[in-house]
Each structure stands twice: as structure tokens, then as C-alpha cells.
Amino acid sequence: MDIDTSQPWGLAIDFAGRATLTEAGHTIHVNVSDTSLSDVIGPDSITGTYSAVNVIAQFTESGTDNAVLRGIGRVTVPPVGTAPVVPDQTAVQRAVAAALADFTQNTAAYTALCATWTPAADGSGDGPTDTASGSGTETGA
Predict the structure, then answer these.
(1) What is the pTM of this model?
(2) What's the 3-state SS for the chain?
């Protein structure tokens, strides 16, 4: 992902902290938000510190028969001392990289799961098969 050095967070975000970008063929949704529960951005009345900022990148890809794979990445930018969080132009880039890595891991896990799920010997489709015994019966409790 290319960082736009003219933007505080490395890309143009809207007033609500949202942006959309395309990376590695995926449309990725980004959300930049503080972790407070308040509408007012200010220091916590008890600790005197500002809230951290979460940068979340996420996307889904859908296939046939309602198959969906997700990729989600989150980077938290903490405040330094009692000052507000300073925008980190690499935070979005790191969150997007984490989302793409998560998607790759989910794809591999889904592929492995599908490879072990085979139709039962009676054709009922009630696999997975017990590959250790070769019995073709379901495993598990």
C-alpha cells in the first residue's frame, strides 16, 4: 500500500474516520477511531490521558453457496504521556497488511478443512472421514 504523505493517517479518511482502498485485488474498508466511549475527544477525567486510536482494516470475499472468507487487521496507536495520539502514517498500512495476512491464513484453514471433509461411504455427504482407520465413518463426539 502506498502511503499518501499529505494525509495525517497515510490516506484520505472521511469525517467519520472511514476510507476504502483497493489492495491485492481486494476492496478493503478502513476505520480510524478512538477507543473512548465519549463523543468529545479529550483526556479521561480520572487518568488524565487521552484514549488510544484503533485502525481497523477489514474485507470479505464471497463465493457460491454463501461461502465467505474474511480478513481483519487492527493496529492500536497509543497516546504518549498525557498528549493526544499523534497520527501514524504507517498504521493503516500495517492494518491492511495484517488483514491480508489474516485472509491468507483463513483461506489456508478453510482449504484444509474442506480437504478433510469427504462424503460418507453411503453417499449421504455426512463426512468427515476417519483417515486414521480408513473406515469412512464420522469422527468426533
Answers:
(1) 0.78
(2) CCCCCCCCCCCCCCCCCEEEEEECCEEEEEEEEECCCCCCCCCCCCCCCCCCEEEEEEEEEECHHHCEEEEEEEEEECCCCCCCCCCCCCHHHHHHHHHHHHHHHHHHHHHHHHHHCCCCCCCCCCCCCCCCCCCCCCCCC
